[in-house]
Amino acid sequence: MTASSFAMILIGVLLNAVAQLLLKAGANTLGVITPTVANAWPLALSIATNPHFLGGFACYGISVLVWIMALSRVPVSMAYPMLSIGYVVNALAAWYLFGEALTSGRWLGIGFVIVGVYLLARS
User: Residue ranges of the domains in the chain?
Assistant: First the structure.
């Protein structure tokens, strides 16, 4: 895999990770979401006008375009496992931004993911 292909994959993965974090921030502003027939329209309106959700949707859209460009350069069997980088980014960012726990088991999992991505990128 070339450096530019890896960079493209990484950009796509990071955009996807940012999208997840923005969606979580948006969900935090709304509280627990329980859709019902009665609240469907107000809920949809709240989501459609929330800047966190809008930013998350935009990041997802751009990440799909970047991902398609990456797939045109790299075999999917190599590119797809690279999405696991997003697990590492999101775990660390969720800990920092939202105060989510990073237990020893999660740290161990993060280590395995990093080693796995490294091995995959070198193959």
Answer: 3-122
pLDDT, tens digit (0-9, with 9 covering 90-100), for 18-68:
999 999 999 999 888 888 888 889 899 999 999 999 999 999 999 999 999
Q: What is the pTM of this model?
A: 0.84
Nearest C-alpha neighbor of 6 from the set 118, 108, 101: 118
Tokens of 64: 């799909």
- In angstroms, the Cα distances linking 42 to 36, 38, 95 are 10, 9, 31
How many other C-beta atoms can be found within 10 angstroms of the C-beta atom of residue 56? 23
The answer to whether 54 touches 99, Cβ cutoff 8 Å, is: no
Q: pLDDT tens digit string along 75-90?
A: 998 888 888 888 899 9
Structure-block tokens of residue 91:
């775990």
Contacts of 56 (CB under 8 A, 6+ apart): 18, 19, 20, 21, 22, 23, 26
